[in-house]
Write a structure and sequence with these properties.
Length: about 190
């Protein structure tokens, strides 16, 4: 059990029988009243964000999660297939569990699967991935305006804005959290 005063971002706690991840928290001291803790949570299943206020001494069960390194193998009609890198067991996960990360998944990519009580509840991608540009407009001489970009389609089907010097066949690094171009990879 942990108290509301012990909340930290990234910690997973059980509220009302459901798992919630702490996004942010603030200790608020009122004039003559007692201090309170205001926290923002993300529901682990639905992704809904809620904000709640607690007394600092309120106690909550902490959810202990296990993270396993897995490799994305392929997609089939039932969802996505991942392989445990330690036991070589394959697991099928539905698309809603993978979420928006499907844009960045390519075969044999390493991911981290979050397990709670032996059940997969989330798939965490690396912060950046290297992908090949398969379609983009050719760069035109003189297109050197700072900060300008053009759309590009990547090998996974995702669309990203890239600088004008990037051409078809180039490998680029993309931030999976924001979907933004980071750099061209040699």
């Amino acid at each position: 059990m942990i108290t509301a005063g012990d909340f930290r971002p990234g910690m997973v706690v059980e509220l009302d029988g459901e798992l919630h991840a702490v996004l942010e928290f603030h200790h608020i001291k009122r004039g003559r009243g007692t201090a309170v803790v205001r926290a923002k949570f993300r529901h682990m299943k639905t992704g809904a964000i809620t904000e709640r206020t607690f007394m600092p001494e309120e106690r909550f069960p902490r959810a202990y999660m296990e993270q396993k390194r897995m490799q994305y193998l392929y997609r089939d009609e039932g969802g996505y297939v991942f392989m445990d890198l330690e036991t070589y067991d394959q697991i099928h996960l539905p698309g809603d569990l993978v979420g928006d990360g499907t844009r960045w998944l390519k075969e044999n990519a390493g991911v981290s699967v979050v397990l709670y009580e032996g059940r997969a509840i989330a798939v965490e991608l690396p912060n950046s991935v290297e992908l090949e540009v398969v379609e983009t407009a050719p760069g035109v001489r003189g297109d050197t305006v700072a900060g300008s970009s053009k759309p590009a389609k990547l090998e996974t089907g995702a669309a990203v804005n890239v600088p004008f010097f990037v051409s078809v066949g180039d490998r680029i690094k993309v931030d999976t959290r924001t979907g933004e171009y980071i750099e061209r990879v040699k």
